[in-house]
């Protein structure tokens, strides 16, 4: 069992059987330990790493100005599907952990999969490699480059070990350096003699040519005896190179090939290759390495998301669906003017503002909005003609029969819904599904009372029913039948334009001085959104990326292209204002009755 130490204490880890060797017995353990018989100090490119999640100290190597190489178990907990967040990892330069220059981590990458603390470190031996991309580069330290050849020739060679772990006397957190010989190479594990002790995990095996060939993974025996296991990095160069490229480095110095990388390190990618949209015969001549048969012919292209054909491709291109019900696609050139509204007859995708021309099954080919089944991507009153996991088009829900309704689509009762859940959300009734906090609802929905409801978590000024509808740092204030997300304030400067900081039951909150969505208006200046609809009611534009708040629906306009938030029910006036202060789902709201000035709430809602 892993002991969770305080900062700079070095935890012992699990017993394990060495891969490729006889079982060394219960003394084998992850090498979160220090260099044996070493000299204090060492290469400045060797850094210390601390994980807030495990409380463990490790070692890493600066292999590029913004990239640190270390061990997977230093940055990923046993049983976890992936690494800890970047904010949970701290690295630093210096000969003593906790001193010197601290390095902020931007990204953490590990070999795929989880591992277990089952005594054999299942899923970890031979896979114990991780890389960190730093927020900014280190300019005053020369990185140690990685070795890019197989490790088989290292047997018998002298290598250098550097780490911050425990020394035989028991202290830890100080950098030590020692040399030793490689005794055995087995697949992705390189064994050395009694060179490491508890605490050096992730530290480098540095060759005589000053290259990192492996990282410390585990050790067996007590400190100063037994063997140490290093994880070779040769088979994980793709992972390392990905991090190097993210950090602004170049990983090659050869001839340029068409693989979306700067192979010749001249600052240009795939120069001389056929650009996206050009004719091709094979992948290897295309920028990005994708030559495909598309509706525009066989061209160089790149994968994209056909659910959002207007996004993800460069200017002058759109995403064309790969197959009739596929959600994936490839970028193709635009030739039309993309001007036709939904439900207008069409021949090609790029004639439509939605970039999707299809016959949804009723024999009429027309412009429609693409969607994925049961993903809540269609507007109010519409349904997606596709099953879960496949893609189709949004059509008037009244046209669809024989298909159980998906998330967000109209329903009469539970039997109408694929999920078996039909809910009333104000005057709106639609299919929903169960959720648990932030888990279970797709984009454009959030969890309230254990069910997915329309809308994202609102900021100040968005409508709400209770605190579960409001984002972090905000809560739901209610006056009669009018609710809005708000926050505590100390002055008007802490509230958005159009809001005042007012007293409310012993606290100060941001309250609207202009109309919210659904309030009566004469001009756009009367509305927080700046939009006064034709019916004299404040509204705002909406869509899949900007869903309406609770109590309102996003309905497509008569022009077939635009959409706006409309209230599904008539509101009645109310009395005081109830404010739930700071409560989140699962926490009983604190309700404070307040009476706000009549100027703030003079405008009442009309029927929408």
TrEMBL record:
<dbReference type="InterPro" id="IPR001254">
    <property type="entry name" value="Trypsin_dom"/>
</dbReference>
<dbReference type="InterPro" id="IPR050430">
    <property type="entry name" value="Peptidase_S1"/>
</dbReference>
<keyword id="KW-0378">Hydrolase</keyword>
<dbReference type="GO" id="GO:0004252">
    <property type="term" value="F:serine-type endopeptidase activity"/>
</dbReference>
<dbReference type="InterPro" id="IPR009003">
    <property type="entry name" value="Peptidase_S1_PA"/>
</dbReference>
<feature type="domain" description="Peptidase S1">
    <location>
        <begin position="35"/>
        <end position="245"/>
    </location>
</feature>
<dbReference type="InterPro" id="IPR043504">
    <property type="entry name" value="Peptidase_S1_PA_chymotrypsin"/>
</dbReference>
<dbReference type="Pfam" id="PF00089">
    <property type="entry name" value="Trypsin"/>
</dbReference>
<keyword id="KW-1133">Transmembrane helix</keyword>
<keyword id="KW-0732">Signal</keyword>
<keyword id="KW-1015">Disulfide bond</keyword>
<protein>
    <submittedName>
        <fullName>Secreted trypsin-like serine protease</fullName>
    </submittedName>
</protein>
<dbReference type="InterPro" id="IPR001314">
    <property type="entry name" value="Peptidase_S1A"/>
</dbReference>
<keyword id="KW-0472">Membrane</keyword>
<keyword id="KW-0645">Protease</keyword>
<comment type="similarity">
    <text>Belongs to the peptidase S1 family.</text>
</comment>
<dbReference type="GO" id="GO:0006508">
    <property type="term" value="P:proteolysis"/>
</dbReference>
<keyword id="KW-0812">Transmembrane</keyword>
<feature type="signal peptide">
    <location>
        <begin position="1"/>
        <end position="22"/>
    </location>
</feature>
<feature type="transmembrane region" description="Helical">
    <location>
        <begin position="586"/>
        <end position="602"/>
    </location>
</feature>
